[in-house]
TrEMBL record:
Entry superkingdom: Bacteria
Protein name per the record: Enamine deaminase RidA (YjgF/YER057c/UK114 family)
InterPro entries: RutC-like_sf (IPR035959)
PANTHER family noted in UniProt: BLR7761 PROTEIN, YJGH FAMILY PROTEIN
Organism whose genome encodes this protein: Dactylosporangium maewongense
Length: 322
């Protein structure tokens, strides 16, 4: 069974990877069991720490630019996904299949306008998936990272998504970060794919009828969900402006509604993006989150902003169905 480890943050990659190795061992795994590495970086990380940790084991790596972390002393974080034996290596480990899911590296380019870069990223993901005998129709979630200056252009990503994705659209999240993964990259995309028939689930929110993503997609026994903020699905109005706790309660309720639509299950992973305005109050959510999702591995990062300016937090969940 695939295991998500909580994100480990710290002042530098060497310290973080040393701590991540201890957490991995405590969970009964070793570096050879890792199927995906996500690095959350505030600046370009010097090479070496990841390579020493993996010791020749090749896995897909997602490099995710972030503005910071809830602890202002942290500069770097790692989130590991593990599966006994390291799953199935594809293309020499560039991709790894584990259970129902296929893990990919994040992708980006520095050439072209915003929509051109977005299309390039989707095409590149399709090329990578060919090595697994899959296509873009196998995607179960995309998370795109763009700068706040592109907020007005963001709707332009709808055309390449509609042209290239589907018929079962994946889940999606959109995060604004002002330090690009590479100079000139206006968007980078982190993605996850599923093997076998995919099923989408919607608690009955009509707004998704015109969108290029869905609230949740099931691959096998894994429910992969979109990012959720405090948005009324009927009026499309942001709710609880300025109140982090109320926003969190609302979006956790949204997560539960999608899980109920798909069937009974357990939330196993929560990736939470908080804005700088919410970072100081974010620790207050720990008790609420632990009570609602005691089995979830949590990774918390600070982004520059979210697509709706009123949002203080967006959560991206994964669950296993009973």
């Amino acid at each position: 069974m695939t295991t998500y480890l909580p994100g480990i943050a710290g002042p530098d990659p060497a310290t973080v990877y040393a701590s991540a190795a201890r957490h991995l061992a405590d969970a009964g795994f070793g570096p050879g069991d890792v199927v995906h590495v996500a690095e959350y970086v505030t600046a370009t990380a010097p090479p070496g720490a990841r390579e020493r940790f993996l010791d020749g084991h090749r896995v897909p790596v997602s490099v995710v630019p972030v503005a910071g972390f809830p602890d202002p002393g942290h500069r770097f974080a790692v989130e590991l996904t593990a599966h006994p034996g390291g799953g199935e290596a594809i293309a020499g480990g560039l991709l790894r299949a584990a259970g129902d899911l296929v893990h990919l590296p994040s992708v980006h380019t520095t050439t072209g306008a915003f929509r051109d870069q977005y299309r390039w990223c989707l095409v590149r993901l399709g090329e990578l998936l060919q090595a697994a005998g899959l296509g873009l129709d196998a995607l179960v979630r995309t998370t795109d990272f763009t700068a706040t200056t592109t907020r007005a252009e963001y709707p332009r990503c709808g055309r390449p998504r509609r042209d290239l994705l589907g018929p079962v659209f994946p889940g999606a999240a959109g995060i604004l970060v002002d330090n690009p993964v590479e100079a000139g990259a206006m968007v980078s995309i982190d993605a996850l794919a599923g093997r076998g028939p995919l099923r989408s689930f919607n608690p009955g929110w009509d707004r998704y009828d015109t969108l290029t993503y869905v609230p949740g997609v099931v691959a096998g026994e894994t429910l992969v969900m979109s990012g959720f903020g405090a948005l009324d699905p009927e009026t499309q109005l942001a709710l609880h402006e300025g109140d982090l706790l109320m926003q969190a309660h609302y979006l956790y309720d949204s997560v539960d509604l999608v899980l109920q639509a798909a069937g009974r299950g357990t939330v196993t992973r929560l990736l939470e993006y908080v804005t700088p305005a919410a970072a100081a109050d974010y620790p207050k959510l720990a008790a609420v989150r632990a009570e609602r999702y005691p089995d979830a591995a949590v990774t918390s990062v600070v982004c520059s902003a979210l697509l709706r300016p009123e949002f203080l937090i967006e959560v991206v969940p994964t669950a296993v169905l009973a």
